[in-house]
Amino acid sequence: MKQYCKFESALDILIGKWKPVILLQLIANGAMRFSELQKAIPGINKKMLTQQLRELEYNDIVHREVYHQIPPKVEYSISEYGQSLGAVLQVMNDWGTAHIDHMNMLYGAEDRSEQE
Amino acid sequence: MKQYCKFESALDILIGKWKPVILLQLIANGAMRFSELQKAIPGINKKMLTQQLRELEYNDIVHREVYHQIPPKVEYSISEYGQSLGAVLQVMNDWGTAHIDHMNMLYGAEDRSEQE
DNA sequence: CGTTAAGGTTACTATTTATTAACCAGGTTT
DNA sequence: AAACCTGGTTAATAAATAGTAACCTTAACG
């Protein structure tokens, strides 16, 4: 009966206000430098970008490559191991897409951005 | 390139300190009443239990069945539609299990509960 | 008539997360 | 020499999330 009991460890590494969009960027664009990510993600600030990248790096999802130059250059990319997350995201995406439809069916398709 | 762009909508319904454990309970035990959930989940309080259940109910993952009796009886269960989440949890669980191993490999298996 | 029962709600506090803005390094351009 | 570049860090603040404790309902029990 403890079938799904470890799904939280997958959940944990995706949780964080900016992690999904960071991953999406890196998946779509391959290696990106810090400033490119910052430009590509409106509303994010350096601190959050650093912090979320560090957490993804700690989990070996993202690889950080430092070029010792002045001014510095640092590139982030999905790590070899991180690629394995693709299948998970795919399944979540498929279900998520269907879920949006399901919710529209239940509550109507008016673009309500709030719940309550 | 917008392959996984909706995976956040799946993520959203799983986010919340108690949602995973509530789902796990309901998956394992079928219908459970409010007080049974409260007993089964150490540390949770009425407010949080109600709130998380309401969010799951709003997303049609959990079904709420009220028995009009005194004292009241309310049973919660995974809804018909909510069953479809099972496949997602399964994939996340499998990856999560492997990820725990991967992290142990990277950082050693000493039971470090903190990062940093 | 006060207490108990189940399943909540409410107002208030505490803890966690996220945001803002200022600062740093060290070489290059003006 | 002042200002700019990138990729950060730090301290302080705001916003969001979670936790505590007291209260509510309606009927039955002692």
Short description:
Two copies of one chain form a homodimer. Chain A has helices at residues 7-14, 19-29, 34-40, 46-58, 85-107, and strands at residues 32-33, 62-67, 73-78.
Describe the protein's architecture and organization.
2 copies of one chain form a homodimer. Helix content of chain A is 53%, strand content 12%. Chain A is an alpha+beta fold and 116 residues long. Chain A has a single domain, classed as Arc Repressor Mutant, subunit A (Orthogonal Bundle), CATH 1.10.10.10. In chain A, strands 1-3-2 form a 3-stranded antiparallel β-sheet. The longest helix of chain A has 23 residues, at 85-107. Chain A is globular, with a radius of gyration of 17 Å. The termini of chain A are far apart. Chains A and B meet through helix 1, helix 2 and helix 5 of A and helix 1, helix 2 and helix 5 of B. Chain A binds a DNA duplex (30 and 30 nucleotides) through helix 3 and helix 4.
